[in-house]
């Protein structure tokens, strides 16, 4: 008998395969007593692990000193001080000898004791050291265990991956020839892991709550990421049925491929621009192959996932690749948007109570001007090699855009002084993804050459619903009246101030919202490749007049349920081929 559970569709597709349960790197503390004869080898293990950890920290420090600054590298000096503290070392060795407990157990107890005493002291500096101490503890214990934690890079057969959760960087490392699909217990549709899955065209379901506890390595499973279900141990009939579905899907893909190079114009001859969202430069050919007329959103943060920060040259090479590939089509590079669910290694120790409301995106860049300036200089340098635009994420105040422009102007002067060319008229735009930016859009218009609406965050901040929470996913609905009203208002403001406007949140890439967005007045869409051809097909078969009429009806309806039903009914009658 098969079992079925539901999940949220993060990236469409159907796959049948063998399950692989991904064990993430949680630190496990083994606890056992040692014999008298094992004491010396236990002390030796401790010294070895100290040495290995010291080497690791020094390597990180050197890398940061080279790619960033010695000031930044100094952050790790306090790690080394903790590691090499003679009192701690002596205490650990004494305890191994007298208590005859294994070294991981002892290190962990000493760490807990230290943390406990530091957390009662009313001194911010000392309290910050808690993070250093727990980081050292983790490193020491991992080095002691030589424990093999799964690495997605090591998977060398075709599998369907199950995991409690995945970070966007885990997903970025996936080889789509091996990982046929993935399923996570946690996460929502607009988490960056989901976005990454769409970008890499890996079918994925998220927010299944407990799939990892229902599956074992090697089980046969079907991931139906068109209807949002996982089937464990399917029957022969189910497998045959799904094989037929996969064939139908391939036929639909072939049919849709015909739309790739046809113009995206409505039946009343209004041209609609379709741009691509990319996370890594490697995606540029896929998205161009789907008919993208340029890049509307290059999420540059994925270049920052490595342990060390990318320097100006490295970033320049990545940006120029994309700029040249699309030239003369536009490429909009968004500056670093870390924070929220996108934590990059450099910043891992900094935990916030409300990460999505914290030092995220442009706030982080303005706080770390050296990182920001390096990025702006590299974008400016790439701007002579194509049609490059620069975009700042999560602008929430007018001061922020003013400061961003000042810094950009200063970077331009630096490049001029060095005789390095750049596009002096590079368009500078902002993401509209925080209600305050939308409310002040008339004023922001003075400082921006273009706006791009980020509905993923706009929905999150307007309805006060965490975009990655599976528990309250029901609240995260683009059809909420507040969202429709806000979208209508930004179109009106942009028209009034003659500011080019695009929309690049996930809503723009979902066929079910295409008619609605056209009716609201959007003419530029930026999306991942997943549904680009379906959206083109819709655009080519509707008129703006009928989309306007649809919006009039939807704006009169109060509940999202009503709107959803009406919209689905309309779509079903107009486009029977459309998958839900
Ligand atoms: C958005 O918020 O809609 C957006 C496009 O940005 P991100 O998903 O990267 O936060
Ligand atoms: Mg955003």
What do these coordinates show?
Helix 3 packs across helix 6, helix 5 runs antiparallel to helix 6 (124-145) and helix 12 (312-326) packs parallel to helix 14 (369-382). Strands 1-8-7-3-4-5-6-2 form an eight-stranded mixed β-sheet. The protein has 580 residues and is an alpha/beta fold. 47% of the residues lie in helices and 13% in strands. Helix 11 (284-289) links the parallel strand 9 and strand 10. It folds into three domains: 3-24 and 150-246, Phosphohistidine domain (Glucose Oxidase, domain 1), CATH 3.50.30.10; 36-144, PtsI, HPr-binding domain (Enzyme I, Chain A, domain 2, Orthogonal Bundle), CATH 1.10.274.10; 280-574, Alpha-Beta Barrel (TIM Barrel). The model has no long low-confidence stretch (mean pLDDT 89). The protein contains 23 helices and 16 strands. Residues 195, 297, 299, 337, 433, 454-457, 504-505 line the site of phosphoenolpyruvate.
Task: Break the fold down into its secondary structure elements and pairings.
Elements lengths: L2 E4 L1 E4 L2 E8 L17 H29 L2 H4 L3 H7 L2 H14 L3 H17 L4 H22 L13 E5 L4 H5 L6 E6 L7 H9 L3 E3 L4 H4 L5 E5 L4 E4 L3 H22 L15 E6 L5 H6 L5 E5 L12 H15 L3 E5 L27 H6 L1 H14 L4 E6 L5 H20 L10 E5 L2 H5 L1 H4 L5 E4 L1 H9 L17 H17 L3 E3 L10 H7 L3 E4 L4 H10 L2 H13 L3 H15 L6
Parallel strand pairs: 3-4, 4-5, 5-6, 9-10, 9-16, 10-11, 11-12, 12-13, 13-14, 14-15
Antiparallel strand pairs: 1-8, 2-6, 3-7, 7-8
Helix pairs in contact: 1-3, 1-6, 3-6, 4-5, 5-6, 12-14, 14-15, 20-22
